[in-house]
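Onboarding guide, step 5: your first structure request.
Type a short instruction followed by the sequence, for example:

Predict the 3D structure of this protein.
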Amino acid sequence: MLKKTLLAALVLGVTATAVQANEVSGYAAYSLGQTDSKGFNTKKKIGHKVVVGLQANEFVGLEAQYTDLGKPKDKFTVLSAGSLYDAKGTAQTRGIGGNLVGTLPLNDFKVFAKVGYHRMETKVKVKVAGLGSASAKEREWVPSVGLGGAYTLTPELDVIAEYERYKDVADDYNVDFASVGIRYKF
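The system replies with structure tokens like these:
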């Protein structure tokens, strides 16, 4: 009985020391950037995101985020009953999701990579001159990957820059998102 009690005390002591050495911390971030919808013939648009994260240790973190990938527009022609009509379309995508983040700390600079899974909603609107308009909404889970860097300004603030790709948005196109932002650590 004494051996089990001593072993339990030793395990608890080592665990408590490990937890203190790897103190869990949190952060919140806001980023703004440019989106490019691959497969949607459009100019680049502005996107943004809000992130809340939990840094388990200096190498691994988890994030929850809200992302708005902008509202790309496209112009095209539609053939109907032997006639061509000018048409315009938009596809606005936004949603929530989570990321697993791996970090390599290098003094005041950190390099990170992330993989994520997001519940995105895409609202598509099409207006055809002379024929009318139509809209549709699609919700789906999409994977993402990203790379970035963070520079520590103060113990509480980082400047971050990153590139992410959201794959098969609306089962049709990929969206690249390059952004810069600020992260507050608590």
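Each response can be followed by summary notes, for example: Residues 26-185 form a domain with the Porin fold (CATH 2.40.160.20).
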